[in-house]
Amino acid sequence: EDKNLQRYVNRVGRWVASQSSRPDLPWVFGVIETPTINAFALPGGKVFISIGLLKTFE
Q1: pLDDT tens digits, one per residue of 12-49
Q2: For residue 15, what are the CA distances in angstroms to 18, 20, 27?
Q3: CB-CB contact of 48 with 36 (8 Å)
């Protein structure tokens, strides 16, 4: 399940990145294993989303 979830986040993240003004950044998408609803981005194209937030999408 974790690999499938990471693949899903990568797929959605790559699409979002391709629509951004900086599609050439070395984008990295990660899943944080916490039930807390949260997401954040860091400089350089690093984006993280929590399991808690992903579960709200179901």
Answers
A1: 999 999 999 999 999 999 999 999 999 999 999 999 99
A2: 5, 9, 11
A3: no
Question: How far is the first Cα of the chain from the last one, in angstroms, to the nearest whole number?
Answer: 14
Report whether pLDDT(58) > 80: no
Which range of residues forms the domain containing residue 27?
A: 2-55
SS3 content of the chain, % helix, strand, coil (to 5): 40, 25, 40
Q: pTM of the predicted model, to two decimals?
A: 0.86
Q: How many domains does the chain have?
A: 1
Return the structure tokens found at 7: 């693949």
